[in-house]
UniProtKB/TrEMBL annotation:
Entries under Gene3D superfamilies matching the protein: EAL domain
Protein name, as recorded: EAL domain, c-di-GMP-specific phosphodiesterase class I (Or its enzymatically inactive variant)
UniProt xrefs under InterPro entries: EAL_dom (IPR001633), EAL_sf (IPR035919)
Domain EAL: 1-229
Length: 233
């Protein structure tokens, strides 16, 4: 059985929760675990679960983002499945986070741009996750610029450090690039009041991290339902 766990995303001013980043979790022998292989879950499984979860979200928390690795991102089945959810649940604000993970296959710039265009044309916002880490470097940022709405900067990817001030030049580079490209900018990995105090001087758009809110179980309309892997309903 799979379910979403959601980590709240906070607006900076005022500091309040406005939605969730959704993480897929699998129940094995009564324990919720991170799946070993996300690729075995089909677009229909994921979007069917989203349709069962969305009606339970409280008002004001209906902005959700879902991570896709690049292999999933360029797979047109994901675009079509999420577009169907967007059509059926127009109140739900769905963003797709393109992760920084590498692919085992060769993916062309043309494939990546076309996929980003499909999502953006369907009003499914594209977020570049963990900019400055993995494959989400400046070349990809420039390539996808017309179709991306937000950058996320993960401070946890730069640990260990004594203080958040130690990585501030890197953070400010991406913050300034987001402003230049007119993108939203989110800092994730906020894990202490000290982090929040330092970041209070950065006029970012959103914040996320354990100090603000840990991932929580999100119930579905019927927690007895096991998502059907064979067809979209």
């Amino acid at each position: 059985m799979i379910r979403f766990w959601g980590q709240p995303r906070y607006s900076r001013e005022p500091l309040k929760p406005i939605g969730y980043e959704l993480f897929l979790r699998e129940n094995l022998n009564g324990l919720w675990r991170v799946p070993n292989d996300f690729s075995r879950f089909t677009p229909c499984q994921i979007t069917n679960l989203l349709k069962k979860t969305a009606p339970q979200l409280s008002q004001g928390m209906q902005r959700v983002s879902i991570n896709l690795d690049i292999d999933q991102f360029i797979d047109s089945r994901f675009y079509r499945a999420f577009f169907a959810v967007k059509t059926q649940l127009p109140y739900l604000r769905i963003s797709i986070e393109l992760t920084e993970h590498s692919s085992s296959q060769i993916i062309s710039d043309e494939q990546l741009v076309l996929a980003a265009k499909h999502f953006a044309d369907a009003n499914l916002h594209v977020i570049l996750d963990d900019v400055g880490s993995g494959d989400n470097q400046i070349n990809r940022v420039e390539l996808l610029d017309p179709y991306v709405t937000e950058y996320k900067f993960a401070v946890q990817n730069f640990r260990p450090y004594e203080s958040l001030n130690d990585i501030m030049p890197n953070l400010l580079f991406w913050h300034q690039l987001a402003a230049k490209h007119q993108k939203l900018f989110t800092i994730e990995g906020v894990e202490s009041k000290k982090d929040l105090l330092i970041l209070s001087h950065c006029r970012v758009d959103m914040l996320q991290g354990y100090d603000l809110g840990k991932p929580v179980y999100l119930p579905t309309q019927d927690d007895a339902v096991v998502v059907n892997a064979d067809r979209c309903v």
